[in-house]
Structures are given as C-alpha cells and as structure tokens.
Design brief:
Chains A, B: Keywords: Amino-acid biosynthesis, Aromatic amino acid biosynthesis, Lyase, Phenylalanine biosynthesis. Chains A, B: Its EC number is 4.2.1.51. Chains A, B: One of its GO terms (biological process) is L-phenylalanine biosynthetic process. Chains A, B: Pathway: Amino-acid biosynthesis; L-phenylalanine biosynthesis; phenylpyruvate from prephenate: step 1/1. Two copies of one chain form a homodimer. Chain A is α/β, with parallel strands linked by helices and 307 residues long. Chain A is 30% helix and 31% strand. Chain A has ten helices and 14 strands. In chain A, the strands form three sheets. Chain A has a five-stranded mixed sheet with strand order 2-1-3-10-4, sandwiched between helices. In chain A, strands 7-6-8-5-9 form a five-stranded mixed sheet. The first copy, chain A, has a four-stranded antiparallel sheet with strand order 12-13-11-14, sandwiched between helices. The longest helix of chain A is centred in the last third of the chain and has 15 residues, at 288-302. Chain A is elongated, with a radius of gyration of 23 Å. Chain A binds chain B through residues 74-76, 183-186, 210, 213-214, 217-218, 247-248, 253-254, 256-258, 260-262, 266-270, 285-286, 290-291, 293-295, 297-298, 301-302, 304-307, and chain B through 74-76, 183-186, 210, 213-214, 217-218, 247-248, 253-254, 256-258, 260-262, 266-270, 285-286, 290-291, 293-295, 297-298, 301-302, 304-307.
Amino acid sequence: MPEIAYLGPPGTFTEQATRLLTADFDAELVPSDTVPVALAAVRSGDVLAAGVPVENSVEGSVPATLDALTDDDPLVAVKEVVIPVQFDVLAHPDVDLDRVETVASHPHALAQVRGWMTENLPKADVRAVSSTAAAAAAVAAGEFDAAISAPVALEHYPELRALETGVADVRDAATRFLLVRKPGALPEPTGADRTSICAVISHEVGTLADMLAELSLRGINLSRIESRPVKHSFGHYRFYLDFDGHVADARVGEAMAALRRRCDSVRFLGSYPKADRAVASVRPGSSEQAFRNAAEWLAAVRAGRLA
Amino acid sequence: MPEIAYLGPPGTFTEQATRLLTADFDAELVPSDTVPVALAAVRSGDVLAAGVPVENSVEGSVPATLDALTDDDPLVAVKEVVIPVQFDVLAHPDVDLDRVETVASHPHALAQVRGWMTENLPKADVRAVSSTAAAAAAVAAGEFDAAISAPVALEHYPELRALETGVADVRDAATRFLLVRKPGALPEPTGADRTSICAVISHEVGTLADMLAELSLRGINLSRIESRPVKHSFGHYRFYLDFDGHVADARVGEAMAALRRRCDSVRFLGSYPKADRAVASVRPGSSEQAFRNAAEWLAAVRAGRLA
C-alpha cells in the first residue's frame, strides 16, 4: 500500500484533505512535522506523494509550501481539493459551553473564529498551540476545556464530543490542498483543469505585464498570482501562477512555451482537475479547434498553397 | 520570356521599379492602364507577375493597390524595391531653363517639386497631366517646354535632354514597389525579410491593441499599418500590416496563426527580402533557437519527463 505524507499531526485539516486527495486508491497516510519534510520524503522516494496546503491555510504557512515546492528537485501537483474552513468546538462530554474557561487552537484558527468566540465564549482564556490537532490532544489530556479543531480530530479523540460544529466567522472561507508527487505521466485533461507554474523574471518595467498578456491574449483565465523574492538574487522575483486549462491544451501549451522564452526560468507545478469542476468558457479564437485551424492555415501559407 | 505587367505608361517610376524587380531574370515588361488591370492580368495568368507601387507613390493611388490586392483572388508579393523620389526636368536640347514657360507633370510629382519650381521656374505655367511619362511625351510632341519626369523617361524620349537631375524638395522621399504573383513557393528567408498581411477585424474596443500585442509580445517590429473600411460591412476594418520577419520564422508564424485565430479573416500578402537588407535585431526570447528550446521543453513537460 503506497504511503502518502501530509503535514501533521493527525487530526488536522491537512489530514482531512489528504484523505480526500487519496480517496480513489488505497494509501497509508504518514504525518510529517513540516511541509519541507513531507516533500523531502516524496523526493527521496520514501513516500509516493504528499498532501500539502497551498492557499488560505489555517494550519500551515503557505509561503513555506511554495518555497518547498520550488527550492529543490521538481515536484508536480496531480490533484486538488478545497476544504471549507469550518471548525468543531471539542470538549469532554461533561463540559458544556457555559463551563468553558480555556480554549486552545492554532493561532490562524483562533483568528478565523474570533467573532464566534466573542459572542459565545466572551470570558474564556484563549491559548495558542501548535496545531488544531494539538489543541484537541491537550483538551483530551485535561489541559484546556475546549479546542477549536478540524472535524476530523474527533476521530482521533473519540472521548471528546463536539459542543458546536460548522463554526466560522466567514461562511465561504476555504483552504486549497494539493497532492504532489515526482514528475510522471500527467492527469488526463478533463476540460475543467488548473495549471500551476512558477516563473522567475527580472525586475524590469513591463516584464510582469507582458507575462500576463501572454496568458490573456490566449484567453487564459488567471486564478491566482503571488510573488516571492528569489533568495540570494536581488532584483529577481518568483511568480506563482495558477490558471485555467491543462498543459495539454493548445492555448495553455503555447502560453507556457511563450513564458519559457520570456522568463529567466519556468517551473511546471502541475495540471490537474479543478476541485470545483467548473468548466472554463473558452473564447472562440482560443479553442482547440481554432488553434488546429490556424496551424493548418499557417502550414498551407508556408507551403505556398494558400494566401 | 515571361511577361511582367506594370502600371504604365512606359517611362514612369513604376517602369523603373519593375525593371529593378525583374533584374535577375529575363522578362518582357507590359504596361497596364491601372493597377487593377495589371493585377487582373496576373490572376488570369496572362502575365507572370506585376510591379505595383504600395507606399508613398507619386504616380498611382496606393489605396487602389491595396484594394486591388485584396478584393479578388489571392496574390502574394515576392520582392520589393524602394526608389528615391527624384525627378529629371526634361526638355528639347534647344530649351534652357530660362526659356521654360510651361511645365507639365502628374499632380503628385508637381507637389513634390513645388519648392524647386518656386526657386527655379517662378514664372512658368504649370500643367497637370495623367503621368510623369505623359508629361515627357507631351514635351517631345512640342506641347510644353519642360516635363517633371522619372529618370527612366529619357530612355523613351531620347530626343529630350535633362535640364536638371535629382530634383526633389524632400531629400529622402521614396516610393516602395512590390512584385506580386499568384501564390506559390515562397522566397527563401534571408534574415532581413518583410511580411505583409491584411487582417479584417470588427470595430470593438481593444481589438486592434490586442492584435498589435500579438506582434510586439513576440518581438516583431511593425513597419507599417494602414486601415481601410471594409466595403459593404459597416463596423469592420481591414488593416494592412507590414512587419519584420518571414512567415517561415517561428515568431512570425506563431503571430500569424494567433491573428488568424483572433481576426475575422487574415490574408497573407507575402514574405520577401527587404529592399534595405537591414537585418532586424531579434530579442533573445524571440529567436528561432528560443522557440525551438521552448517547444522541446513543452513537449517534455507534456510527456511528464520534465517540470
């Protein structure tokens, strides 16, 4: 049974996400202390793949994931899931809400339920711990009265119960996770795919605008952009881009080749089905058929058969 | 011996240009009354090719050439020459400048020597005729004292002599001529080529800017753009574009395929060596090698061999 690493400890949103990411095959989930450790295990071949948070995480630093993805040998994403950021409030069965005096969780999680806490636990002491799962463990051990945790935590601490479920100040907050592995055969295009890349460009006027124009001119919808300075290389920036489409699509392939020509370097971070399965509307001039027709016309012009 | 049509009559700049355009093969030059007549003779196969003015002409309407090139079956340019707009002042040997009372020429030619006339023939009567060659013919027939003509006219009227040569108010005025024929094998790329196309686009905000971005993003230098309304199709415009490079070049081919996808229609009007032989500097990211490298990288990414 293949082993799949994830950012631990067990009982976090990342475990919950990694279960979903591996739902269609038998896998043993192995918690790692950090994202770099999980990815190193993939690179070394100790595990087949890893589940890592990439966007809006509540439990791990997303920049850490981006850096860990690109600082070493190539890894590619093959699947994504999006988990709603909604917490359970866990406590021992004999503890009711009005008896809760101490509440523990990861600082990011506490930030996401501040409104709920003000309304429901205005007098409780708030304690920051290293993860939402660690909070549940501490409550199970009697250190605090209640934990703000991922729903999956209850499976690891069956002695606790949920005082409240679906707690979240922002209703549609969500975290995106990726299943990453070493380069290999890509997931088939589904018509509702996302492609992730990391491009390094020099810090010159217009460079980024031109880079984005390579996408927009080909009718490619950009869903995320994030810049990070390149370590030890002043004046150069890494741009993490997510956009609609699969590298096997003509418009995406041509755009990526254009970025490869334009940028100092481009790293492919994967083409995979979008979690929401939303089919991107493709402009008439950017469809597979349009690219095929144009290529045939160009070939005929070059051969002197058409004008 | 192949016949080559040109905008007549004999003795004009177009004859002079067509001689240069056909200098590397034996050809019989056949004057036509109009550019459309010359191009119709090419389309019908009566002649092999035609020499026509396309830019800054002093003797024929350039829009007429553009319309005639695109209103009917495809024709492509295979060669260009640029002729300096400098005139001879022709007269009978017994006529000196101070005895010239009447001067004839084509109105465009007269406009180009107005300054010289004011200075040298301030009292002469100026007469507009249908061509610079017709002016020379009329002088030979004794109708006027002097003609403002193309240098080549003297070969047709050896009984005349040049009172003055190299007459031009603007020193670097020039006219560009093309040798056009039916589609067939294209001239080989030389590294200093020009490509001409006609693209039809609808009249929407940003359409033209996006079209030009397809060229600029690929490092292609636009040397001429001219718009003409499309007859019987309100809101659509034809754009005549000349840009550096050969359709066989990777950057030009990809840009043309992009325009083909983007525009309502694109007509290829030829790739041919530039008259000035000026090699365009190609940006590193737009070189043949850069395109080849990017295509190989993309193929490896798509095959899952690289990331």
